[in-house]
Amino acid sequence: SEPDFSKKKAGPDIVKQRLADRSFKNLKEIAKNYDENEIPKLRYSVKGLLNTNLVNFKLIFDSDYLSQRELEEVVNSINEDGSYAYYKESLLHKYFYGKELKLLEDLSDLLKSKGRGSSLLLSKNEKNLDFLLNLSQIFKLQLEENGSYVKKGKTLRPELKLEGDLNGIEITLKEEDYPIYQGGEKDCRWTVIENTVHKIDFYDFDKLPTSFMIPEQHQGEFLFEILPTLEKNLKLERSAELEGFELIKESPSIDLNLDYRQQKISCQLEVEFAGETYSNTELLGLDTEQNIYKRDSENPKLWYGRDNKALAEVINFLEDYNFKVKPEHFIIKDNNEIQEFITDGMTHIPEDWNVERSESFDQIEIKEVKLEPIIEIDDSEGINWFDFSISYNLGGKTYSRQELQQLISYNKKGEAYVKLENHYYILESGAQEEKIEQMLKDAEAQAEGYRAPYHNLLYYKNLVEKSGINFRGNKVFNELEAEISGLNVVKEREIPVEVKGKLRDYQKNGYNWLRFLHKYRFGGILADDMGLGKTLQMLTLLKSLEPEKAALVLCPRTLIYNWQEEAAKFFDDLKTLVYYGTPAEREAMRGDFNQYDLIISSYSTIARDVEDLNAENIIFSFAILDEAQHIKNHRTKRAKAVKNIQAETRLALTGTPLENSVEELWSIFDFLMPGYLGNYSYFKQNFLNPINKNNEQEKMRELKERVAPFILRRRKGDVLKELPEKIVNIHPVSMTQLQEDSYQAVLEEVRGELEQTVEDQGFNRSRINVLAALTKLRQICNHPSLVLGEEGRAHNSGKLEALRELISDALSGGHKIIVFSQFVKMLKLIRADFEQQGINYLYLDGSTRKRMEKVREFNSNPEVEVFLISLKAGGVGLNLTAADMVVHVDPWWNPMVERQATDRAHRLGQENRVMVYKLITRGTVEEKMLKLQQRKQNLFDNIIENNVNPIKAISWEDIQDLLSY
Predict the structure, then answer these.
(1) Separation between Cα atoms, residue 485 and residue 834, nearest integer Å
(2) Which of 115, 190, 389, 894 is at a distance of 20 to 30 A from 699, taking alpha carbons?
(3) Residues contacting 681, CB < 8 A, separation 6+
(4) DSSP one-letter code for 251
(5) Which of 483, 504, 528 is a domain's end point?
(6) How many helices (H) and strands (E) does the chain have?
(7) Are 865 and 840 spatial neighbours (Cβ–Cβ below 8 Å)?
(8) Tens digits of per-residue pLDDT, 603-655?
(9) Is 645 helix (H, G, I), strand (E, B) or coil?
(10) Domain around 874
C-alpha cells in the first residue's frame, strides 16, 4: 500500500524520529570534519634538527594504513627520478589524496636520497628546512631525538655589536642565549627553542667587514648617513664612543634680483652659505648631491651640515624656467618662457628668498582678454556673394582678423596670446569667437576680408543676433534687418484680392515669409503640418508676384490635380497646365509653357524630361517641390534630375518633420541653395557622421542654426485658435490607365442597361437599379478588383496609391488616423497594403467581435497608428477621440452618414482640430456627384434634416449627367 503522508505520527514515534534525525546529523558532521581535516595515512618524524653531526635531515615514515611492503614502495617511488614519473604518480594517487598527496608530490621534487628502511635523507639546505617546517604545520612532525612535536616559530635576527670609535670600528655578533645550528649552506641556519624551530637571518653578515677605519673626510657621512641606514635594517648595538653625536643643518640665504630689459628677463642670484658667498655661475659649480659635514672646533660631538635640498631648489628653479647662462647673470628671452615665468614661476619662488624687482620688470603685464569681434559687411555689388571684414580692438588699437592671427602665439598650456610691447594678452575664446569660426567655414579669404555666398546672409544675421556680436551691415543687410525680427518676418505685403478675407493669420505670415525669401533670392522650405494650407500659401505667392516666366510645381502623381483644382478654386484666372501624358504630348506642351502661369507635373515625368527642358533652355520663375521628401535620397536619378531644373527661385513644401533625417535635409537644401550646406562629402564629415554616429549635440545645434532661417514650420497646436474645429479637404485622385479602361467599359455596360430599365419600368421604380449601377462604378473608382474579382487584381488603383501617399505623410507628421470605406473588400485591400508597408493598424467591420476593446486600444496605445473601419459597422456609436485625421476613401451623396462617421473623432473630448480628407476620383461619378451636391446644396440639406434618403433629391436627368462620358 502507498504511504500515508496526510497525518503526523504521534506519541513515542515522534521522539524516536527526532533522536534518529539528531544522531544522523552528528554523523554527517563527523564525516564532514574527517573530510575537511584529512587524517593522514602516514606518520612523520625527523632526525637531525638537534644533531649537528648529521649532514642530512632524516625523514622517517610509518603507517597503520599501509603494509611495510606498500610503505617501502611509496618511499622508493618518492625517491625515483623523472624517468619514473608516471609510475610515481600512479602509486601516490593510489594511496593518497588532498593535502597529503600534494605534500608527497612536493617532497619528490626536493634534493634527497634513500635512507635505511622507510626513510629519506634530505640535504640540510634552506629549501628542505622550509619543507619540514611546512610539514609540521599541516600534519604532525615528531623530533626523533626527544619524541616531541615540531612547531614552526618566527624568523630570528641576531644583534650586531659596533665596538670602537671613529678611528677604528669592529663588527661582531652579539652572543645569544640559544644554540645556532648550521646546515650545509650558509643561508641555512636555525635554532630550536622548546621544540619550536626558528630560522635565523644573518642578513649577509659574512659580507660585512669585521673591522674597518673611517677616513676623516667621511666621518660625518658615516655618522649621519651610513649608520642611520644600517640601523633601519639591522639590529645594532653601538659602543659608547659612537653615541651622542648632534647635527645642525645650515640653510643658505638667497637673494634674487629680477630685471626686464630689451625684451629679456634677467636674473641675478647670490647665495650665502656657511660664511661663504656664491654668485650667479659660481652656483652651478656646487655639488648638490654630495653633503658637506664639518666638526665643531670646540665640541667634538657637534657637527654642521649644508642643507643641500635648499641649495638644489635654487639650481632647479633656474632649470625649470629655462634661464640661460650668461657670465654676469641668467636670462629668459623667449616670449612663451617669459609668460610662463610671470604667471607660474613668480608664484613658485620660496617665501624665504629675498626678491627684488626693477620698475621695468613690474611693468610686464599679463591679462586675459575676451575678444569682441566687429563684423562689417561691405557695400559690394555681388550677385551671388557678399564681402565682409572682421576686426578686433586690442590694446587701444584695431586689428583685422588676418593681422591679429599673425600676432598670435601659443604658450605651453596651449593658450593663444598676443604680445604688444610689455603686455601679454591671453585670448579667451568665448561663444562669440565660436560663432565667428562657424561663419568662416563657408567663407573664402580675400586680400582684406572674406567673401561668402549670398544665401549665408540670413544665417549670419541669426548667428550674430544670438551672440551679441557687433554687426555693421550694408544697405541690403539693413533692409533685410528691417523686415525680419529674429526669424519672424515683420514686413507685410499686399495680399491678392481673391484671398484677402480668406487667409488665416498664420497663412498671411507664411505668405509674407515666402515673399521675403523671394526678394532676397533665398530658397526655403514651408514645412507646416498637414492641413494648414501650404498649397494656398504658395499659390498666393505666385498670384501676388505674377512672374513673367511660368512657375513649375513638382509633386507626387496623386497630387497633380489637387494643385490644379486648388488654383482654380482660389485664383480662377491663374492659368495652369498639367504637364503629363505621352512623350509626344509632353513635347507639344513644352512649346506652350509661356502661355501659362503654373506648370504642374510629377517627379517621375520631370526626371525623364529634364534634359529636354534644359536643351530647350526653359527657365522657370519658380521651381517648387511639393512633398519634397521625394528627393531625400540624393543618389537617385529622380533627385539628380530635379536638381538640374533651371529656375530663378527654388522653394519646397513638406509636412514631414525634417529634423528626423539629417541626410534628407541636406538633399533638399542641395536643391534649394546648392553649396549652402557644403557638398555631400563635407556635410557627411562635418554633420552627418558626428550627429548620427557620435550623437554630437553641438553639431546638431550648429546645423539647426544654419537651416533655421530657411524653414518655416507651424504645427497644428501652434495655430489651434485660428483653425476651425473641423477642416475638410477634397483630395482629387486620378485613375491609372488600366483602371480608367475598366471604368469606361463598365460605364458603357451599366448605362445601356439602366436606360433600358428606366424606359421599361419608369425612373421611380428603377431607383434600386440606379443605385446598383452607381455602386458598381464607385467600386471601380476604388479598385477594379472590387468589380472584376481576380481579373482586376492585376490592375493598380490611383485611389490606393493616393491613400498610401496621404497616410505616409500623415504618419511622418505624427498624426493618428481613421480610414472609412463603405466597401469591406476595399478595406481588406487597404489592410493588405498596410501589412506590406509595416503600418501598425486596427481593423473593424461587421464581423469584428470585441469592438470596444479595439476602440480602447486605439485611444490608449500610441503605437497603433491607423484604424480601418467599415462605414456601416463603425459609422456610429464609437468614441475615437485619439484620432486627429479622418479619411473617407469613397465619399458619396449622403453627407449625414459621412458626418456621423467623422464625428467618431470630432466629438466631445477631442482636444485637437480634426482634418477630414475625401478622396474623389476625377472624371467619374464621384466627382460629378460632388458637383451635383454643390449645385443642389439647399435641397440636400433639407432632405438630410428630414431624414429622407438623399437619392430622393436626384432626378433621372441628374443620373444621366452622372453617367455621361
Answers:
(1) 45
(2) 389
(3) none
(4) P
(5) 483
(6) 36, 47
(7) yes
(8) 999 999 999 999 999 999 999 999 998 998 999 999 999 999 999 999 999 88
(9) coil
(10) 726-962
